[in-house]
C-alpha cells in the first residue's frame, strides 16, 4: 500500500494514516525499484549505447572527453563502476519521484507506465540532450543516434519503473516480506550519495504522513487537480527543451531559447 502519494498500489485512495514503518517501507520501495531500473537502463544500456557511439564516430574523437568528462572509446572497470553507482542513485531518486507522481496518475497500470515514461522521457531527455556545440551532439556521430540514445534511456526508465515499484509494493512483494532493517539498508545503499539530496523532501513527507489534517489536504481533489496541472506543465517544459536542443543541433547554431531545462 503506497503512502507517499496517498494511493494504494492499484491507484485507490488510502483510508487511514500509515504507520511509521509503513511509511519507510514505501520510500524503500521507490528507492530500490528505481535504483534497480536505473542500473539496467542508465548503467547497462547506457554503457552499451556509449560504446555504439564510440564505434560509429570518427576515429579522431577516440580518447577525447565527452560532456561528462569521460574518454571516448575507453571502457575501464573504475569508470563502469562509477557509472553504475551514479545511475543507481539517480534511479533511486526518480523512483521516489514516482511515488509522488503516482498520486495524480490513473489507476490503470498501463496508463501509469505510459504517462510516467512521457514525464521522465521529456524532462530527463531535456536535461541529457544539450544544444550545439555540445561535444556529445556535435562531435559524436551520427548526431541523430546520440539524440535518440539519450532520449531512449530516460523514456525506457519511466516505462519500467511503475511496474517494478508497484510489484515490490504489493502485499507479497519483496519489500513487504523482508525485515525492515534489511529493506532500509538496501534502500540507503541504492541512494548512496543521493541521501543528502532527498533528506529534506523525505522529512517533509514524513511530517505529512504523521498529520491527519495534512493527509486530508494531500488526498483532496484540489491537490489532485493541481498535481495534474503541474504534471502537464512539467512535460510541456521538457518537450520544449528537447525541441529547442534538437533544432540547435540540426542547424549547428547555439540555442538562444530561454527557460530551458
Structure overview:
The chain is an all-alpha fold. The chain has one domain (20-251). It has helices spanning 20-56, 77-101, 109-128, 135-138, 143-169, 174-177, 180-191, 195-210, 212-218, 221-251. The longest helix has 37 residues, at 20-56.
Features:
261 residues, mainly alpha, 10 helices
Overall pLDDT score: 87
* N-to-C series of helices and strands: HHHHHHHHHH
* Largest sheet properties: none
Q: How many DSSP helices?
A: 10
> Number of folding domains?
1
Principal-axis shape equals: globular
Give me the oligomer status: single chain
Annotation, overall tally of beta strands = 0
CA radius of gyration is 20 Å
**Beta-strand residue fraction:** under 5%
Taking pLDDT < 50 over at least 5 consecutive residues as the criterion, the unreliable ranges are 5-15
Question: End-to-end span in angstroms?
Answer: 33 Å
Structural class by helix and strand composition: mainly alpha
Helical fraction: over 70%
Amino acid at each position: 500500500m503506497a503512502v507517499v502519494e496517498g494511493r494504494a498500489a492499484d491507484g485507490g485512495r488510502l483510508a487511514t494514516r500509515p504507520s511509521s514503518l509503513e511509511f519507510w517501507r514505501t520510500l524503500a520501495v521507490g528507492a530500490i525499484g528505481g535504483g534497480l531500473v536505473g542500473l539496467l537502463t542508465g548503467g547497462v544500456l547506457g554503457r552499451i549505447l556509449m560504446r555504439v557511439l564510440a564505434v560509429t564516430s570518427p576515429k579522431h574523437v577516440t580518447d577525447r572527453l565527452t560532456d561528462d568528462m569521460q574518454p571516448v572509446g575507453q571502457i575501464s572497470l573504475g569508470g563502469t563502476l562509477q557509472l553504475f553507482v551514479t545511475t543507481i542513485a539517480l534511479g533511486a531518486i526518480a523512483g521516489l519521484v514516482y511515488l509522488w507522481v503516482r498520486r495524480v496518475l490513473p489507476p490503470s497500470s498501463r496508463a501509469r507506465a505510459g504517462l510516467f515514461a512521457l514525464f521522465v522521457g521529456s524532462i530527463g531527455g531535456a536535461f541529457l540532450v544539450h544544444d550545439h556545440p555540445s561535444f556529445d551532439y556535435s562531435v559524436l556521430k551520427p548526431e541523430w543516434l546520440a539524440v535518440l540514445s539519450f532520449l531512449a534511456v530516460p523514456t525506457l526508465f519511466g516505462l519500467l519503473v511503475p511496474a517494478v515499484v508497484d510489484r515490490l509494493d504489493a502485499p507479497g512483494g519483496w519489500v513487504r516480506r523482508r525485515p525492515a532493517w534489511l529493506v532500509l539498508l538496501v534502500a540507503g545503499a541504492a541512494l548512496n550519495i543521493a541521501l543528502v539530496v532527498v533528506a529534506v523532501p523525505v522529512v517533509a513527507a514524513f511530517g505529512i504522513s504523521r498529520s491527519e489534517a495534512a493527509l486530508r489536504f494531500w488526498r483532496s481533489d484540489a491537490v489532485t487537480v493541481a498535481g495534474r496541472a503541474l504534471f502537464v506543465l512539467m512535460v510541456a517544459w521538457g518537450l520544449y527543451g528537447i525541441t529547442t536542443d534538437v533544432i540547435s543541433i540540426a542547424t549547428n547554431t547555439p540555442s538562444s531559447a530561454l527557460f530551458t531545462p
